[in-house]
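User: Some background: our group keeps a shared notebook of sequences we're curious about, and every so often someone picks one and asks for a predicted structure to add to the entry. Today it's my turn. The entry only has the sequence so far, pasted here. Could you supply the structure so I can complete it?
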Amino acid sequence: MGELLERQTNMPLAIVVAMGQNNVIGKGNGLPWRLSDDLKWFKQNTLGKPTIMGHNTYRSIGRALPGRDNVVITHQADVAYKDVTIAHDLEDAITIAEAFALARQVQEICIIGGGEIYRQALPLVKKIYLTRVAVEIDGDVFFPALDPEQWEEERVKDLKSDEKNDHDAIFSILTRRPEHFDIAD
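Assistant: Of course. Here's the predicted structure to add to the notebook entry:
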């Protein structure tokens, strides 16, 4: 991962994720819940920004996300999708996303999944847009454990379950404490 320290812009990277109390983020290549308000929160925090995702995340969405530059990481050769730029590892994806961000004059790149991409990117991010879903749920994809000492949390909104939202949830923004961030600004 040392190569990532040589990036030219050090554009801030952020993770956008919804997870259950047991860190589940996915099941069967999809989300394990229905949360309409979380989809709105996701859109609010990613619209206009470059998004980086893994191949399985892209396939679960089924299309490029409109209003965003979509960068998909895959190890497969000869893969092409409409309105998507392909990268073969996280370093390439960040370099591509930085070029999009500079061209569009936006100040953040969003990492939107899945589990392995989150694991690789977590040491590099300064911010997490977190939806903490108030449920322990069965799943097959997990978010890495967060060290609460490294993060300051700003609670943005509480969500109560209703006809459009299966579970209660809390929307928060986690910001990495500066003493726990190794990449120079």
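Suggested note for the entry: The chain has four helices and ten strands. Residues 90-104 form the longest helix (15 residues).
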